[in-house]
Amino acid sequence: MPRQKGSKNAVRTKKAKIDYAAIIAEKTAAKEQIETEIVALSDNISALKDQLKSKKSALKVATKDLSKAEAKKVAAEKKAAEESKKAEAESVLKKLLASGMSADEIVAVSATSQREGMVWLDRFGKEIYAAPSVDLRGEEAADLLSGKEPFIKEITGLPVSGMFGLARLLWYKKFNEAVYDRIDTVMMISDWICYLLCGSKVSEPSVASSSQLFDVKNGKWSSELMKSVGLRTDIFPEISDFGEQIGTVTKEAACETGLKEGTPVICGAADSQAGLVGMNVLKSGMLAAVAGTTTPVMRVTDRYEVDEFAFTNRHGVPGLWLQEGNAGITGLALRWVRDLFRTDYEIMTQEAMSVPLGCDGMRCFSGHEIAGRRSSTCRSGFVFPTPWVLDSYKRGHFFRAVYEANCYAVRANLEAIKADSKAPLYVCGGQTASDFYNGILADVCGRQVITQKEREITGLGIAMGAFTGVGLYKDIREAAAEMSFAGKIYEPKHDCQAFYEDWLEKY
Questions:
Q1: Quick one: which H or E segment has residue 266?
Q2: pTM for the complete prediction?
């Protein structure tokens, strides 16, 4: 019979006794082990802290040593570059003298240079900054000027841009005041070359107008502008006109160059303006394009004009100004395609000539610009019509597309600067060595294109200024009339012109 719940006869289980002493001993041992490990870790941390402190000190020393080494490297490279340029200049002069010309036969020296390039000197006459227009540190400072653009353009004729000297000076004032405070004289590159030859600190209106610090209408540095943006007004040289003597070659310069001490040094001009003088483009309404690395497109005017879609600059001849656009990196675009296809310009031209007008619908975009409509980003490449078959295009299509795009860019800028539709276009520069390019340019622009006999037309223009400075000519105009000679003249072909007009409407 089953046992009832709660019966007195039920079996009872005894609870085992817990050994608390053992548990305590175990937990104590574990605690002591953890404490021992903590002490060891603390000691290790202290040692690591000491090591870290030592390494930080070593890092500080290493960083300082690295900075010194980098500074020495930069200084050495700068010195090497200066010595290389000096050696190159000496080599050119030696070749000139070796060709049969003696130092006594050199009647005068002058200089020209890329516009926007600048050199700053300290009070000892030593360079503390030198850079062409591609120094884009000024872009950051240019943002500070955006609200002042109408005021700035009215005075300088130029839109706010980081490539001009105004923004560069502001950048140094804001971010590198130690250099800014050391500036004694601001010079353009051609000014600096003449300074090295004769010791005179002088600038010329056509090159000074590219600084965006110059009152282009009145031909003087703009103290009003500089005060309005917080820049010093005492760091700019005096102004002399192109073709005026500003000094003579010093004894030191004579020793370094081989020139005769006492040779007259004549105030030069900006490269594009010197080219205008070399082409005898000296009358209001005349048009010119300097087709080199880029292609400045210029209209001469006898009055100061400020336009939304153009730069306003001084001409090299007093009393004249320029309305100017720039077709962009035209020469660089040709070089880019040349290098892309690993060929040369002669072959490019031959193959381009085998392609019909309009390149069967292919178009090129390679950073071309229109006056007043510049962008920091440019589309680059080729566009094909749709539908298209890749096999239907050959290398010549790419070559001709670049040539045609360059010419259309010139045309667009001529329209932007309000060029007379019937005025001929005077051209110079490396691209104009090509009959093929000149012919397309005439057809696309629908106007006569006039080239020059002299290839180094900018050098010729500077020589005209130098001869004027020593009295061989009464003024620049007389020198240009006597020394400039037009080359080939290209007339627009009616059928080609009509095609390009139609093509422009389509695309």
A1: strand 264-266
A2: 0.76
